[in-house]
Write a structure and sequence with these properties.
Rossmann fold, 7-stranded parallel β-sheet, globular, 2 domains, alpha/beta, disordered C terminus, 6-stranded parallel β-sheet, single chain, 13 helices, about 375 residues
Length: about 375
């Protein structure tokens, strides 16, 4: 007999801007006790970027050194559901998973896909297959980030009917500004590292006919100097504006002043900047190896291009730029669509997945995937 959970215990590495809004919405939607158990406290770098702990009193936060943690690990009441952030995201989280799985408690997992490329990718696939053997029968559900995550865990050997699409959420800062200079503006937001593919974006922009498209680059990373030099060699020095770090509270307004967010990652388990751009009414062009490509369910929201393919990226940019700046009507449609992956919508979907898993019923459809059409050149 199904017993609705009255306590959700989420085991996470640290407070996350991608999870805290969801936890707060879940506490409101479920009226159950929501507890977040963190392995580490919020690091200064993340706090400076706007990451935060829960502000809702309905979410109880417990840290690794709190004696309450031991009582929560041992909580195997039928009305308690444990939810882990991945199988190997942090040693303390994995330890708790092992202890919970050895008992009678029900549990599920929320996780991204892993990068399966190269030798390291082979190792990751083997590890996931081992996790499927160790935990597959005991795991009530896996909420996998995007189609990449769903494919990854099913391929690893987890029961296909227990793997469901999921999405990160971000704080809601809806914007609808406009710029009236008539020009098209693109933006990249993220780390300046090879995996993010900013070099591919610069190469693609250099293939477009002049004048060069203004590009704003927000973020820092060890490839910063190399990318600046590359932009100069490609003749893009005057077209690229380097903004450095912008706080999460401000990034929505910055994105909304642009006509396109480009996320050219060689691999991205999710890519929360896609959420932020769409919530601000700015369409997105991202690679097919970004988990957040799931959010591009209609042409208004954007499209994908074949990962690592500079020619495909350039072709998509050429076509999108030719359409001109984004108008207010389209921005309003994008913002309306973004409500399908708001914290409140994702929390309701989570509860529906839990109910279907515990009652062995047909799982619900992810609200943001309705009418999904993934296009790429």
């Amino acid at each position: 007999m199904f017993v609705s959970p009255t306590r959700f215990v989420f085991w996470q590495p640290m407070p996350s801007m991608h999870q805290v809004p969801f936890l707060e919405a879940l506490a409101t939607a479920s009226r159950a006790e929501v507890i977040a158990v963190y392995a580490d406290r919020l690091v200064a770098e993340r706090a400076a970027q706007g990451w935060r702990s829960a502000s809702s009193s309905a979410v109880r936060e417990v840290f690794h050194d709190d004696p309450a943690r031991e009582r929560l690990v041992a909580d195997d009441a039928p009305t308690t559901l444990h939810v882990f952030s991945g199988f190997r995201c942090h040693p303390a989280v994995r330890s708790a998973l092992g202890r919970v799985a050895a008992g009678r408690a029900a549990f599920g997992v929320i996780s991204e896909a892993h990068d399966g490329q190269g030798v390291r990718g082979v190792v990751r696939r083997v590890r996931s297959a081992c996790d499927a053997v160790a935990y597959g029968r005991r795991t009530s559900f896996i909420l996998a980030m995007g189609r990449l995550g769903v494919s990854w865990f099913r391929a690893a050997g987890f029961p296909a009917d227990r793997v469901h699409p999921f999405a990160y959420v971000t704080p809601a800062h809806l914007e609808l500004p406009s710029h009236d200079d008539g020009g098209f503006r693109a933006i990249y937001v993220g780390q300046l590292i090879r995996r993010k593919g900013v070099d591919l974006l610069l190469d693609a922009l250099a293939r477009l006919p002049p004048p060069a498209i203004p590009l704003t680059i927000v973020g820092t990373g060890h490839a910063d100097a190399e990318l600046r030099a590359r932009a100069s060699r490609l003749g893009l020095a005057q077209a690229v504006s380097w903004r450095g770090v912008v706080s999460n509270e401000s990034i929505s307004a910055v994105m909304a002043c642009h006509d396109l967010l480009v996320l050219p990652s060689r691999f991205d388990g999710w890519g929360a900047v896609v959420n932020e751009a769409l919530a601000a009414g700015t369409p997105v062009l991202c690679s097919t190896t970004c988990g957040a490509a799931d959010l591009l369910a209609d042409p208004d929201s954007g499209e994908t291009f074949r990962s690592g393919d500079v020619s495909a990226l350039a072709a998509s940019l050429r076509r999108i730029v030719a359409e001109g700046p984004v108008g207010g009507d389209r921005r309003r449609r994008i913002i309306a669509r973004a409500r399908s992956f708001s914290a409140e919508s994702v929390a309701r979907y989570f509860l529906d997945v839990v109910t279907s898993a515990m009652q062995s019923r047909e799982p619900p459809a992810a609200p943001w995937r309705a009418g999904m059409v993934l296009s790429h050149a």
